[in-house]
């Protein structure tokens, strides 16, 4: 028995166009080029690059791509139909889209009569003319056209006959893809399914051309012939008399991904969306969820398995480029997507990951994580101990002791899920492996608010006394705040004994008031992130005194840094 080839779905990415309509997101040309290259590597066949007539950046972006073309993806330029009562040939926007020099163009036109009369301010017939004239003109100029039917679902609900006329006009004018857009994002999955089914029937579209029924059409954008109205063929030789269908959904009802999936189930074979779901208002359908759902759950083919296994990295790299923090809880690609916190979950996952994971995380390039907290059981402790290289068994007394201490400290306000270095130190303490590098004798911090030439500024001074190897050390240091002064004084006292401390620095400092109702006597939790230039680690301190909490976190940060350095030293010595 031969394995059946999965039906293909063409992914159409619009991060660079619809994605950049998200409030707070702005891309430079270099950003756009970097994102386009990542999508190309990922194996996305269609990348919508922007609207060339709308702004100079998008014009230049297409020029830059001509100089440094993508390896496999087809870059698509986007534009509206021509303006009412003009010809397509004289519309400057359409001249701009031609000048972009892409093989494929996407044109959006109105499907909803309300938008025609109130948005465009023209007649229903003129809108049909605009669609026809625009597409025919672009075809006459050798372009292949994807037609985005804007507000398709609202239009179809309001006036199905007119909406169908717009689609038929686009189809007859030579559009190769008709894309149903849920522009306002208000349609629910059951309505999407019903409407797509109706339209396929009413337009008498051939389901064979929709990428189902075992066909594997050769519509690879880069391998098909150039030129005017190229003949479209399926692998089996049947010519494409009817266009293929696509879906473009927005997330205003939080159902964009479900809506796109419903359309595919009904026969649509192009899915438009954006990386990380960026887009106007609440965003577009998130390709980072859609692609794995299509390929791993529904059995369609979107990209090679190895490309899918880079999805998490591409998602995070794009969030870095657009300068938006990645969503830790995003399905498939989020940091927490395969994080297990509850003790029951961890105990089962350690036996068989299927018990609490819907897919193996590595299929999308993500990884399983075990989180430590007061929701933990012995299984969490064992899993963490293993990841830190400690030999520990469920029956060991230390194991229960660590779990008990963890719960006790979390009850006092500590939070170890974000401070794994402190948890490692706690485990070492219980296992009798914690090395004490110094002993605190006391510290004092003095903080002033001073008047500068224009603005006030703060100045702080810390004095610290520690004992190292039996020797008492007293040091003073200044800082721009009490914590930085204390940190500086401590390092100054220790650096003579532990020169590696000179390479450590604080990279983040977070404070959380734990019991707001208690006012100034509330407890404070401090999380400190430290680095030695190669690794980063986080430690935690809790106290009613913010300086005391900061001191705990800073000291553990230094202790842990020393531990990491000595582990490196040991590894080097052993290799030698
Ligand atoms: C659903 C979508 O996401 S569509 C994409 C939306 N994206 C954007 O709008 C971003 C880029 N847009 C822009 O830079 C500008 O809006 C431009 C350059 C396109 C147009 O700017 P302006 O000429 O100043 O027009 P403005 O933005 O005020 O209004 C939009 C015009 O497009 C017209 N229009 C809207 N849809 C269409 C359409 N499908 N076909 C033709 N014209 C359309 C509107 O009727 C309006 O016309 P008017 O100027 O006669 O009132
Ligand atoms: C075309 C498009 O972006 C929309 O209708 O949402």
Automatic annotation (TrEMBL):
Tagged with keyword Amino-acid biosynthesis: yes
Pathway assigned to this chain's UniProt record: Amino-acid biosynthesis; L-isoleucine biosynthesis; 2-oxobutanoate from pyruvate: step 1/3
Gene Ontology molecular-function annotations: (R)-citramalate synthase activity; 2-isopropylmalate synthase activity
Keyword Transferase attached: yes
Reactions that this protein is recorded to catalyse: pyruvate + acetyl-CoA + H2O = (3R)-citramalate + CoA + H(+)
UniProt EC number: 2.3.3.21
CDD domains: DRE_TIM_LeuA3
InterPro entries: 2-isopropylmalate_synth_dimer, AIPM/Hcit_synth_CS, Aldolase_TIM, Citramal_synthase, LeuA/HCS_post-cat, LeuA_allosteric_dom_sf, PYR_CT
Region listing for Disordered, in residue ranges: 208-227
Keywords: Amino-acid biosynthesis, Branched-chain amino acid biosynthesis, Isoleucine biosynthesis, Transferase
GO biological process: isoleucine biosynthetic process; L-leucine biosynthetic process
Lineage start: Bacteria, Bacillati, Cyanobacteriota, Cyanophyceae, Coleofasciculales
NCBIfam families: citramal_synth
Domain Pyruvate carboxyltransferase span(s) in chain numbering: 9-309
Organism of provenance: Coleofasciculus chthonoplastes PCC 7420
Family (UniProt): Belongs to the alpha-IPM synthase/homocitrate synthase family.
Protein name (record): Citramalate synthase
């Amino acid at each position: 028995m031969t394995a059946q080839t999965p039906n293909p779905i063409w992914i159409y990415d619009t991060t660079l166009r619809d994605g950049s309509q998200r409030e707070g997101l702005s891309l430079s040309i270099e950003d756009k080029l970097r994102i386009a290259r990542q999508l190309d590597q990922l194996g996305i066949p269609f990348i919508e690059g922007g609207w060339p007539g709308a702004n100079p950046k998008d014009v230049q972006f297409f020029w830059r791509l001509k100089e440094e073309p993508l390896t496999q993806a087809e870059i698509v330029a986007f534009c509206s139909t021509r303006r009412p009562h003009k010809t397509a040939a004289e519309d400057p926007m359409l001249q701009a889209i031609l000048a972009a020099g892409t093989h494929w163009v996407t044109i959006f036109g109105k499907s909803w009569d309300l938008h025609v009369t109130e948005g465009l301010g023209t007649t229903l017939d003129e809108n049909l003319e605009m669609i026809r004239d625009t597409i025919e003109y672009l075809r006459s100029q050798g372009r292949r056209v994807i037609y985005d039917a804007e507000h398709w679902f609202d239009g179809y609900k309001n006036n199905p006959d007119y909406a169908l006329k717009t689609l038929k006009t686009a189809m007859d004018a030579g559009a190769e893809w008709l894309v149903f857009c849920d522009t306002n994002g208000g349609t629910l999955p059951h309505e999407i399914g019903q409407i797509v089914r109706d339209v396929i029937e009413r337009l008498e579209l051939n389901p064979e051309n929709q990428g189902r029924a075992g066909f594997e059409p050769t519509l690879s954008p880069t391998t098909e012939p150039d030129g005017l109205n190229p003949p479209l063929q399926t692998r089996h030789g049947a010519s494409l008399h009817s266009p293929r269908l696509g879906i473009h959904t927005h997330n205003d009802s939080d159902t964009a991904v479900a809506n796109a999936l419903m359309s595919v189930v009904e026969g649509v074979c192009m899915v438009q969306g954006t990386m990380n779901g960026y887009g106007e208002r609440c965003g577009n359908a998130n390709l980072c969820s859609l692609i794995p759902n299509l390929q791993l759950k529904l059995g369609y083919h979107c990209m090679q398995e190895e490309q899918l296994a880079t999805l998490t990295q591409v998602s995070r790299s794009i969030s870095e480029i657009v300068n938006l923090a990645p969503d830790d809880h995003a399905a498939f690609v989020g940091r927490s997507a395969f994080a297990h916190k509850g003790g029951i979950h961890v105990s089962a996952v350690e036996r068989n990951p299927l018990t609490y994971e819907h897919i193996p995380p590595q299929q999308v390039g993500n990884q399983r994580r075990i989180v430590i907290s007061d929701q933990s059981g012995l299984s969490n402790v064992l899993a963490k101990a293993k990841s830190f290289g400690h030999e520990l068994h469920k029956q060991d007394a230390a194991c229960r002791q660590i779990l008990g201490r963890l719960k006790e400290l979390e009850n006092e306000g500590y939070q170890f899920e974000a401070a794994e270095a402190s948890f490692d130190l706690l485990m070492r303490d219980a296992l009798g492996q914690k090395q004490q590098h110094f002993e605190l004798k006391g510290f004092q911090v003095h903080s002033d608010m001073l008047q500068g030439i224009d603005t006030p500024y703060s100045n702080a001074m810390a004095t610290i006394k520690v004992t190292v190897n039996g020797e008492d050390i007293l040091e003073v240091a200044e800082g721009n705040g009490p914590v930085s002064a204390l940190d500086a004084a401590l390092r100054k006292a220790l650096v003579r004994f532990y020169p590696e401390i000179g390479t450590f620095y604080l990279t983040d400092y977070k404070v959380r008031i734990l019991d707001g109702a208690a006012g100034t006597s509330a407890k404070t939790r401090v999380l400190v992130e430290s680095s030695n230039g190669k690794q980063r680690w986080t430690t935690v301190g809790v106290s009613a005194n913010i300086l005391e909490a900061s001191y705990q976190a800073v000291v553990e940060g230094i202790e842990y840094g020393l531990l990491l350095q000595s582990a490196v030293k040991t590894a080097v010595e052993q290799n030698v």
